[in-house]
Structures are given as structure tokens and as C-alpha cells.
Amino acid sequence: MAELMNCKKCGRVFQYTGITKICQRCRKKDDESFKIVREYVYDNPGATLVEISEETGVEEDIILRYIRQGKLEIISENSSLLIECERCGKGIKTGRFCDVCIEEMRRGLSPDIKKRETAKEKNENKHRMFTADRKKR
């Protein structure tokens, strides 16, 4: 059953489905803003963040959120609209992390995942009942 909650943007009460914490009206407005920004960026690949914001009427932090979410990618190599990897600071075109950091984090998590799975299996075996073979005398 879905619960009621207040929209993080406008404060209206809406039925939360577990997907997003903003109401349908705000989500629709955000989608429209994204389309405007996307079209502007593709038509003006060298535009700065300030230019994009001024020309589209969309706030800079919202544009940066689109880039961080991977919804928008900087396509020009010469663009001043690069963002930084949250881990190493390297300039990236979209998302939160550069390819190198993503690979390092993936490799770093793999052994931990295997350790957790092995520990879980051992823990499950502790609670099982086993029978011992008795030697006949």
C-alpha cells in the first residue's frame, strides 16, 4: 500500500509509490525543464553553465543535477561545463565518478561481496542439523 507524503519541492501531499519523493506535478515540470536544457545544450555545445541557465531559465544547480544523474552529457571536448569526479576530482562529462574510479570501486567491492556471501553460507550451515554416521560395533 502506498503511503502519503509531502512533495520535497512544493510541499503538496501526494501518494508516494517508492520511486520519487516529488509529486506528479513537480516531476512533470522537472521533465519539461530537462527537455529545454537538453535541446539548448545540443544546439549550443560550447555554452557555459551560466549561459545555459540564463537562456533556458533553469537554475544552475538543477542543470548540474541532470549531469550528475547521467540524464545529460557534455558532448563538446572544449566545453567549460565539465563536472568533477566525486572521488578523485578529475573532469567528467556525466555522472558522479570517472571511469577509472568506477572500475577501482567495482574491483574493491568484489572481494567484500564474496566474503559476505561466504560468511552467510557459513552462518546458514551453523543452524542446520547434521547426522553423524555411527560405526557398527
From TrEMBL:
InterPro entries, alphabetized: Flagellar_operon_YvyF
Region Disordered: start-end pairs: 112-137
Domain of life of the organism encoding this protein: Bacteria
Name of this chain's protein: MerR family transcriptional regulator
Organism phylogeny: Bacteria, Bacillati, Bacillota, Clostridia, Peptostreptococcales
